[in-house]
Amino acid sequence: MSIEIRKHIDALKSELLKENNNNKIFGYHVTRRENLKSIKKIGLEPRVPQDYGENGDTKGVYLFKTIDDTKNALYNWLGERIDEWEEDNNEEYDEIVLKVDLTGLEENLIDSVEFEWTCLINIKPSRIVSVFEM
Fold first, then answer.
1. Phi/psi at 5 (nearest 5 deg)?
2. pLDDT surpasses 70 at 53
3. Taking a C-beta distance cutoff of 8 angstroms, is the pair 26, 99 a contact?
4. Which tops the pLDDT comparison, 33 or 56?
């Protein structure tokens, strides 16, 4: 790994640790309730978001950095995407939010945008701290 990449990872890790209590790093993943059974068995698998197509985005597990970022997305752009999905599929999306412990996975996190991380590896089910509705 190059020195520049290592410095970027170290800076990201330092920033993450500042923002989280007890040196724990948490992310928040929005998914459909019907996916929970599978997630509890195999974890969160990296995927390309369906609405981006095969070449439109990075394959990963997308996680919001804070619960406020999660709420903001659900009340705005992500909520609009969910509404569109519901209209297209004529059924309720029935979303839930997973709070995920990302501690120790910093080398696999891409700081994709200011409110979101992309995790490049499978996240084990044991890392799910809680499941809740918004």
1. -65, -45
2. no
3. yes
4. 33
Domains and CATH numbers, the chain: 3-132 (3.20.170.30)
Both structure tokens of 90: 């004529």
Phi and psi angles of residue 23, each rounded to the nearest 5 degrees, phi first: 60, 20
Task: Provide the 3-class DSSP secondary structure of residue 8.
Answer: helix
- In the chain, the amino acid numbered 71 is K
Q: Is residue 120 a contact partner of residue 105, using CB atoms and an 8 Å limit?
A: no
Dump the DSSP string for 77-124.
HHHHHHHHHHHHHTS---EEEEEEE-TT-GGGEEEEETTEEEE-SPBP
Which DSSP string do the residues of 23-72 spell out, in sequence order? G--EEEEEEEGGGHHHHHHH-BPPB--GGG-TTSS--BEEEESSHHHHHH
3-state secondary structure of 20: coil
Q: Please report the pLDDT score of residue 8 as a whole number.
A: 55
